[in-house]
Amino acid sequence: MLGIIGGTSLLYCNLPRLEKRTVWTPYGPAEVMAGDIAIMLRHQGGRPPHRINYRAEAAALALSGVDRIVSFGSVGSLKAEIPPGTVVIPTDYLSLTDIPSFHDHAIEHVMPALDEGLVQKLSEAIPTAQVGGVYAQTRGPRIETVAEVRGLAKVADVVGMTVASEATLARELGIPVAAVCTVDNYANGLSDEVLTYEHILATSKKYAHRTEDLVESIVRVCGSD
């Protein structure tokens, strides 16, 4: 079963009609919309990025039968040549903050990676997307400083607050994972625009119909075995 994780970018979308249910996990409950596919809205209960119960959400998807995950991320562009409105399918990620893990009581190491096969399927589902690049995760909820953006731009292409955590936990569960990043703005210092959460919400609303089309294409291409 395909699992889709989304946040701000899915906020104003009309999503597939699925059954909403609460899945109880060893890490707490999480709400899942499930049917032929599963959709998880990460900001459950209005939680900001640093308060999301990533372990419960990943476990709930696994318990629902999900065996591949596409994570949507609203991101800022770190490069002038990646303008707002671009869709990026990254092929690697990095994190400047703590990454959650299921391995609290044993020494285990996971090899982090975005799944090449799933990236290829996403590129077929979204032929207009830019394929390749690095996603950088910061802690949030604050936006990155200008100095942080300058540093990140040397090693990454887009910046967000959630996807690296979700991707790592999926790998620990043995679930292939890939990401679709919708570029909502230039990162701090790359434009004269003053970044606010309200601006990000307005951008999400502006591109809602396009995001609905992205979800539909992903389900069509990646939803079947």
Task: Describe the protein.
Strands 1, 2, 3, 4, 5, 6, 7, 8, 9, 10 and 11 form an eleven-stranded mixed beta sheet that branches. With 225 residues, the chain is an alpha/beta fold. The protein has helices spanning 54-63, 116-125, 146-152, 163-172, 197-206, 208-222, and strands at residues 2-6, 19-25, 28-34, 38-41, 68-77, 87-89, 92-95, 130-131, 134-137, 158-160, 177-186. It has six helices and eleven strands.
Features:
single chain; 225 residues; alpha/beta; eleven-stranded mixed β-sheet; 6 helices; 11 strands; 28% helix
Could you tell me the strand content as a percent range? 25-35%
The value of Rg in angstroms is 16 Å
Into which percent range does the helicity of residues fall? 25-40%
Major sheet attributes: 11 strands, mixed
Measured between the Cα atoms of the first and last residue, the distance is 8 Å
Can you write the helix and strand succession as a string?
A: EEEEHEEEHEEHEHEHH
Shape: globular
Number of helices: 6
Overall average pLDDT: 93
- Which parts are unreliable, with pLDDT below 50 for 5 consecutive residues or more? none
Summarize the structure.
By secondary structure, the protein is α/β, with parallel strands linked by helices.
Sequence-ordered SSE layout with sheet pairings:
Blueprint: E1 2-6, E2 19-25, E3 28-34, E4 38-41, H1 54-63, E5 68-77, E6 87-89, E7 92-95, H2 116-125, E8 130-131, E9 134-137, H3 146-152, E10 158-160, H4 163-172, E11 177-186, H5 197-206, H6 208-222
Parallel strand pairs: 1-4, 1-5, 5-11, 6-8, 7-9, 9-10
Antiparallel strand pairs: 2-3, 3-4, 5-10, 6-11
Helix pairs in contact: 2-6
